[in-house]
Amino acid sequence: MRRLLSAFALVGLLAGSPALAHHDGDTFFAGDMIVGHAWAHENAAMAHANAVYLTLTNDGSEPDRLIGVEGDFFANAEIQAPVLGEDGVLRTVTVPAIEIAPGQSLTLQPGGIHIVLVGLQHTYFDGDHFHLTLVFERGGSVEIEVDVEDLDHTHDHDHEHSS
After folding, report:
1. Residues in the chain, pLDDT under 70
2. Could you tell me which of 117, 139, 107 has the C-alpha nearest to residue 24?
3. Which domain holds residue 11?
4. Which of 127, 134, 149, 162 has the fewest beta carbons closer than 10 A?
């Protein structure tokens, strides 16, 4: 129970870090859920897994949960989250779903909650795109486009633009 509470506390802290949010990119809708900023690093030809990052915003008055990720170029997808163990060590665990409260935005990002595509069947390079289907408990399914970026790409876009 303590581990689960630590996970939810960490999720709350990570949800409030828009400074780490990625570029604007395309926006997709599933009921009251808004999905944006979808991206992944390019993957090596021998890689069997790759992480996907994005921002989820609940624009409704009821909570919703991301309960699945589907696609035809990987064996399965896992939602992973960092959890502080009783021994004080931070570990990554697979969770069955992510709940997004009404009015909450949650940024899936490196070092935080993220989606892992396991058993990749393709290699993706900087500038490529691929499609995933996200499944929400209330909002249903939505197909999104994920931008692929090189491993050296900086992700602090909020401070790069000048007016």
Report:
1. 1-25, 153-163
2. 107
3. 2-149
4. 162
CA distance 55 to 131: 16
SS3 (DSSP) at 74: coil
- Distance (Å) of CA 97 to CA 122, 150, 161: 26, 28, 35
Question: Considering all CA atoms of the chain, what is the largest pairwise distance in Å, rounded to the nearest integer?
Answer: 48
Tens of pLDDT, residue by residue over 78-92, are 999 999 999 999 999
- The alpha-carbon radius of gyration of the chain (Å, integer) is 16
The rounded distance, in Å, linking the Cα atoms of 93 and 121 is 23
> What is the number of structural domains in the chain?
1
In this structure, is residue 155 part of a structural domain?
Answer: no
**pTM for this entry:** 0.80
